[in-house]
Amino acid sequence: MTRLSVNINKIATLRNSRGGNNPDLIQVALDCERFGAQGITVHPRPDERHIRYADVYALKKAVKTEFNIEGNPLEASFVELVLAVKPEQVTLVPDALGQITSNHGWDTIQHQELLKRLIAPFKEAGIRTSIFVDPVLEMVEAAATTGTDRIELYTEPYANDFPTNPTQAVAAYRKAAFRAHQLGLGINAGHDLSLENLAFFQANVNPLDEVSIGHALICDALYYGLENTIQLYRRQLK
Ligand SMILES: CC(=O)[C@@H](O)[C@H](O)COP(=O)(O)O
Ligand SMILES: NCC(=O)COP(=O)(O)O
């Protein structure tokens, strides 16, 4: 069964826009879990444009399902935060400081030794590790040598191509997941997954341990309500 982890970055974006505490991020996280989320994901970026480091400490005390923290481990403050909080999972993403959002996976061939060094402290702390990768077989194969527990397949290209040619859009992901499974890696996926493209993705990419979804889900919640939206996404993952 594929687990749904709800990324609440955009709840923090809305909260920060007025400088107060509305919406209350912690309460929304608890409600997401109550509505059916099987995990909570956050991506505390160095500029704290949405999720703040203080939010991560507060969420650790509140979250009852799986807590997944995403970020760039080349930022020492991120590593310190994750080792202090000890979430169930850390997802390593190679985002540069000024990126508007995540838009590529690691070059696991060029950065194989670096990733081994970056992953080791998290594993020693008992935190499951996942690294953000593009659906390229060579990158998946090199990821397996880093010691990571899982990969997260970067799915924006799939989402972009899905409307015109779903079968072609998902092909690379099918192959990447098959190879990753052969290599003993767990398989997560995320970025721009939505109500429109999620079921087809899950039907064709297996095994698929977890999807983390934020932007489209929160946008859908504006129309369908948060509880109904989480249930709609869960039903896509049957
Ligand atoms: C890693 C990834 O694809 C997303 O989880 C990322 O966290 C989105 O970040 P923003 O919410 O800042 O766009
Ligand atoms: N790792 C992907 C994630 O957490 C959410 O990405 P998005 O759904 O906001 O694009």
From TrEMBL:
Pfam families named in the record: PdxJ
Active site: 43, 70, 191
Cellular component per GO, a single term: cytosol
Protein location: Cytoplasm
Enzyme Commission code: 2.6.99.2
Family assignment from sequence similarity: Belongs to the PNP synthase family.
Cited function: Catalyzes the complicated ring closure reaction between the two acyclic compounds 1-deoxy-D-xylulose-5-phosphate (DXP) and 3-amino-2-oxopropyl phosphate (1-amino-acetone-3-phosphate or AAP) to form pyridoxine 5'-phosphate (PNP) and inorganic phosphate.
Protein name, per record: Pyridoxine 5'-phosphate synthase
Annotated organism of origin: Aquirufa antheringensis
Gene that produces this protein: pdxJ
